[in-house]
Structure formats: C-alpha cells, structure tokens
Amino acid sequence: MKDRIFLNGMRFYGYHGVLSAENEIGQIFVVDVELTTDLTEAGKSDQVEDTINYAEVYADVKEIMEGEPKNLLEHLAALIANRINSHYNRVLETKVRITKEVPPIPGHYDGVGVEITRVNQND
After folding, report:
1. Is-catalytic flag, 44?
2. Which residue range or ranges hold the Dihydroneopterin aldolase/epimerase domain (predicted)?
C-alpha cells in the first residue's frame, strides 16, 4: 500500500546559491515534501505514534533550509530526503521539491528548482 503524507508550500529564507549575490542577500525558498508510507495502522488507531509527525518533519526541513548555505538546490534536496529517510523508518520514499521563485537570472517564469525522489534504504 502506498499512502502519502505531504507538506506543501513551506517557505524559508536562506542564503543558498552559486552566485555571490544569493549568498549575501538571500531569498525565499519554497519546499514541498511528499512521504510515501503505509497509513493503515494510523487510520485504525488514531494515534500519532502510528504515523509520521508533520511538525517533526517541518523542523527537519527548516533546520536544513535555514542552516549553512549550500551552492546547489540538488544538494539541499538530497540533505532533506536523506534526513527524513534516516529519521523515520515508516517512510518508504521521500520526494523533495525546492523552488526559487525569484532567482537572479533574467527571464519570465514562476520559479526554477529541482525535484528528487529517494527510496528509504533503512529497512
């Protein structure tokens, strides 16, 4: 069974990027996380212990996004996926999407970013 828990539109101010302006001025990053898991037991028990606590996942993402600057969104996304997969053994797979809505590049767009999916190998 593949159920999903999602945290969409999390916004964090950070100093990530390859360009020096990004490291100095910073910008808002939008992060979406989707966790594939089995929610059967939580659906029966109504107990948070039988699911994945959204608040804890949010705190993990926040710590990474507001932490030490990184050059690449790919690296940030991998850090988030790896943290979630290593901390929550109920997670089967983690999808992370990070968007820069206003990167310092010319053009017209709604945002640029990356999306990765990592299978939890901690079985």
Report:
1. no
2. 5-118
